[in-house]
């Protein structure tokens, strides 16, 4: 049996992961990171949001019930610098950030692993719905058995060496099986609702959050133009929009219009018909390869451009400097710069990169 540190958010998934490891006879330590400073006015809306004070309290209650040590570490300053500020700057730059992917790389599998090692843990476990095999030459990371809960997409940016000492106890389970296990093991949060909002935006108002962090001279809108150059109106700020968006444009048109592009240099929002959203290819930067070595020749794989997006066959061609060209077998709708693209071979996550443009 091993000494295992479990990343505990206070939710049913991480709590059940800890309980299952305890049942298997491992020595388990609970680790919780305080990543956001919830002020008094946010406490009421904090429950149900990952990493809220209520969640931290739940993690401690679960640890007490499981008779295991539990440690809370304040890394809110690091989270601010590496996750929150890049999130704001990403929207200002006309992209659509994905902070959860960055958080997995920089927080959950970096800071937490360092803390685990400082406590002499041999492994770090999380409640991710993903499967991991470490018997091969390099770790093999696959989709979670429950495809409706699969979180492998969010792990494409984690360096492969981090997975050498990671355990995913829930990878082979469906969500209802996890809750059933939690009830069987008397986990206090077995029926706790899931959290869906970003942990640092407890009220879900992304636009208001970004605006509140803008200097006065950056709080302005700009023109809305059709692809043909026609001026159609004005918008209240590019951070309010993402490629593919239809609602909230404030436009009257005989045909449905969608956000096609954002031009931060001029503050212009470009809109057009649905067919203008179809992209035959994209370029991705800062690619990270998990289950295979970085390819040196074109590679066939299935590409997923968003967490809930259906994968499509594609040819991935290395361009050098950790960049690739992705050519889709079928045009893909609403490819948004700033999001991630993950590459799969069946169930196996090969790797992924950050979408730069189409």
Number of E strands: 17
Number of helices: 7
Q: Give Rg in angstroms.
A: 22 Å
Termini, distance in Å?
A: 49 Å
| Percent helix range | 10-25%
Task: List low-confidence stretches.
Answer: 40-48
Strand order of the largest sheet: 12-15-14-13-16-17
General description of the model:
With 358 residues, the chain is α/β, with parallel strands linked by helices. The chain has three domains: 3-127 and 169-184, HUPs (Rossmann fold, 3-Layer(aba) Sandwich), CATH 3.40.50; 220-272, Adenine nucleotide alpha hydrolases-like domains (SH3 type barrels); 278-357, Elongation Factor Tu (Ef-tu), domain 3. It is built from seven helices and 17 strands. It has helices spanning 12-23, 40-46, 53-65, 76-92, 99-118, 175-184, 206-212, and strands at residues 3-7, 27-34, 70-74, 123-125, 130-133, 140-143, 166-167, 222-226, 231-235, 258-263, 268-272, 278-289, 299-304, 312-320, 323-333, 340-345, 348-357. The strands form four sheets. A six-stranded antiparallel β-barrel has the order 12-15-14-13-16-17. It has a five-stranded parallel beta sheet with strand order 3-2-1-4-7, with helices on both faces. A four-stranded mixed beta sheet has the order 9-8-11-10, with no helix packed on it. A hairpin with a 6-residue loop joins strand 5 and strand 6. Helix 1 crosses helix 6 (175-184) and helix 4 (76-92) runs antiparallel to helix 5 (99-118). The longest helix is centred in the first third of the chain and has 20 residues, at 99-118. It is globular and about 65 Å long. The model is unreliable at 40-48 (pLDDT under 50).
């Amino acid at each position: 049996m091993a000494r295992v540190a479990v990343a505990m958010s206070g939710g049913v998934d991480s709590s059940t992961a800890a309980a299952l490891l305890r049942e298997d006879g491992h020595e388990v330590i609970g680790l919780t990171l305080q990543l956001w400073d919830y002020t008094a006015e946010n406490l009421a809306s904090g429950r149900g949001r990952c990493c809220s004070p209520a969640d931290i309290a739940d993690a401690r209650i679960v640890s007490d019930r499981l008779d295991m040590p539990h440690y809370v570490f304040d890394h809110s300053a690091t989270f601010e610098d590496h996750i929150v500020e890049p999130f704001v700057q990403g929207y200002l730059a006309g992209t659509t950030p994905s902070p959860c992917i960055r958080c997995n790389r920089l927080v959950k599998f970096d800071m937490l692993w360092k803390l685990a090692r400082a406590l002499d843990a041999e492994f770090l476990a999380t409640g991710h719905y993903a499967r991991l095999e470490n018997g091969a030459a390099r770790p093999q990371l696959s989709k979670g058995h429950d495809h409706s809960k699969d979180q492998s997409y969010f792990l494409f940016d984690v360096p492969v060496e981090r997975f050498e000492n990671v355990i995913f106890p829930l990878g082979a389970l469906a969500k209802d099986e996890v809750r059933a296990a939690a009830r069987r093991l008397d986990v206090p949060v077995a029926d706790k609702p899931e959290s869906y909002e970003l942990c640092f935006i407890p009220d879900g108002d992304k636009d208001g959050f970004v605006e509140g962090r803008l200097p006065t001279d950056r709080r302005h809108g700009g023109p809305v133009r059709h692809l043909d150059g026609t001026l159609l109106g004005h918008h209240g700020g590019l951070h309010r929009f993402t490629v593919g968006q239809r609602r909230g444009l404030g436009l009257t048109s005989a045909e449905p219009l969608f956000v096609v592009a954002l031009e931060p240099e001029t503050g212009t929002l470009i809109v057009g018909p649905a067919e203008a959203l179809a992209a035959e290819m994209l370029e991705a930067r800062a690619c990270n390869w998990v289950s295979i070595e970085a390819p040196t020749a074109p590679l066939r794989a299935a590409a997923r451009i968003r967490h809930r997006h259906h994968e499509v066959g594609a040819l991935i061609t290395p361009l050098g400097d950790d960049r690739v060209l992705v050519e889709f077998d079928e045009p893909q709708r609403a490819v948004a710069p700033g999001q991630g693209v993950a590459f799969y071979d069946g169930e196996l996550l090969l790797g992924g990169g950050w979408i730069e443009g189409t």
